[in-house]
Write a structure and sequence with these properties.
about 160 residues; mainly alpha; 6 helices
């Protein structure tokens, strides 16, 4: 069984997975940890605490921020460090599962949060719009869309 299977990474995937998505995820991490009131207000203003954020909520938001950080580092560093297609496919499959879980996490807000794009605020664009885009990019990558066929199998750095 070979563990090295270098491949050519199309520019769209390289730009999205190694740069755009990690940066966007770091923005989410920043707001969850350093701007928790804004994060909660944008997520669901009616249930956001108005006076002070309970300690338990602060802890959970810091944990969420840490998970966003790990997500960003996995994409930006782990994927950049390997030219093994199997590693790329495995990590992106795991992130696709995380996308589905992320989308499910806002289900308590009802179907409108998924479909009423005109009512989305900044965090909705991150929670739905950007996650939809990331999931579609992962599905396309996993399906081999845009990947070279029959070309020398070496990843460009």
């Amino acid at each position: 069984m070979s563990t090295s299977s270098g491949f050519i990474l199309p520019a769209a995937y390289r730009l999205f997975f190694l740069t755009i998505e990690p940066i966007a995820t770091l923005v989410g991490a920043y707001f969850a940890h350093f701007q928790p009131q804004t994060y909660l207000d944008l997520t669901h203003a009616p249930s956001s605490p108005s006076l002070s954020i309970p300690l338990g909520t602060q802890i959970v938001l810091t944990q969420l921020s840490n998970l966003y950080l790990v997500f960003a580092l996995n994409e930006a560093l782990v994927l950049r460090a390997t030219s093994d297609l199997k590693v790329w496919r495995t990590l992106l499959f795991c992130l696709l599962i995380a996308d589905l879980g992320h989308l499910y996490s806002v289900s308590g807000l009802g179907w409108d949060v998924y479909l009423n794009v005109m009512a989305w605020n900044a965090i909705d664009w991150g929670n739905m719009g950007f996650v939809y885009l990331g999931a579609m990019m992962r599905v396309a990558f996993l399906a081999g869309i845009g990947m070279p066929v029959g070309a020398p199998q070496h990843k460009r750095s």
